[in-house]
Design goal:
This is ATP-dependent RNA helicase. The chain is an alpha/beta fold and about 240 residues long. It contains nine helices and seven strands, in the order ααβαβαβαβαβααβαβ. It has a seven-stranded parallel β-sheet. Helix 5 (about 140-145) links the parallel strand 3 and strand 4. The longest helix is centred in the middle third of the chain and has 15 residues, at about 75-90. It is globular and about 45 Å long. Bound molecules: adenosine-5'-diphosphate (ADP) and magnesium ion.
Length: about 240
């Protein structure tokens, strides 16, 4: 890639000045990188939806989030922007390995959110991979997986890599996202999720988004959420 002028990287409030952004209604009012802003604009995203307005001022201070908003309310961008900004601010590079894992309950949903990540993250230099099983050859995937910065995956396939891929390393994980968290926390995924979480570093940001609010204290405990911000949006966005 051509040499790019390094943008200065400002500090987002460590909890004290995030309130400045609570009233923001457009993405370009947020303290996010030019790269992400360009990606958002190119994809046609200008005004934030309700859940994005409610969550981004908190998630961009790296707080844990438990966000509930109905299907179609724009939850994907809320976590995709946070993941990109976190890694950008950490100056995440090719050698840093897996910085973020985004878990989705189905292949189809993983595909959809991967497309959003690609579009909005186009100006960034992160490598991202879709690990969802199916026809993709596991051995080829194993060779590449350690070079990826952002993993978008289904629980089963992620666990398969954790168990079988030599040197699979997520010890530097910065952000864990559970999309459709209520479905992933459901009994069907319980064993896989517990096995996954037990292999992740506890010191990280965790973002849970779903259509319904997850209330189980037990679930939140096993995910090691730290003082999460509970957000529930019911209005039309
Ligand atoms: P959810 O995950 O809450 O069901 P999605 O993230 O899939 O919702 O978004 C639903 C639709 O809304 C998508 O087509 C998406 O492109 C669109 N969308 C999301 N955020 C915005 C926005 N800020 N402005 C315009 N359209 C948006
Ligand atoms: Mg969604």
């Amino acid at each position: 890639p051509p040499l790019e002028k390094k943008e200065p990287i400002g500090r987002v409030g460590e909890g004290e000045n995030f309130s400045r952004y609570v009233g923001a209604t457009r993405f370009d009012q947020l303290p996010i990188s030019k790269r992400t802003k360009t990606g958002l604009k190119a994809a046609g995203f200008v005004k934030m939806t309700e859940i994005q307005r409610a969550s981004l001022p908190h998630s961009l201070c790296w707080r844990d989030i438990l966000g509930a908003a109905k299907t179609g309310s724009g939850k994907t961008l809320a976590f995709v922007i946070t993941v990109l900004e976190k890694l950008y601010r950490e100056r995440w590079g090719p050698e840093d390995g897996v910085g973020s894992i985004i878990i989705s309950p189905t292949r189809e949903l993983a595909h959809q959110l991967f497309d959003v990540l690609k579009a909005v993250g186009k100006q960034h230099n992160f490598s991202a991979g879709l690990l969802i099983g199916g026809r993709k050859d596991l051995d080829t995937e194993k060779e590449r997986v350690n070079d990826l910065n952002i993993l978008v995956c289904t629980p089963g396939r992620l666990l398969q890599h954790m168990d079988e891929t030599p040197n699979f390393d997520c010890s530097q994980l910065q952000v864990l996202v559970l999309d459709e968290a209520d479905r992933i926390l459901d009994v069907g995924f319980k064993k896989a999720l517990n096995a996954i979480v037990s292999q992740l570093p506890k010191h990280r940001q965790t973002l849970l988004f779903s259509a319904t609010q997850t209330k189980s204290v037990q679930d939140l405990a096993r995910l090691s959420l730290k003082d999460p911000e509970y957000l529930s949006v019911h209005e039309e966005s």
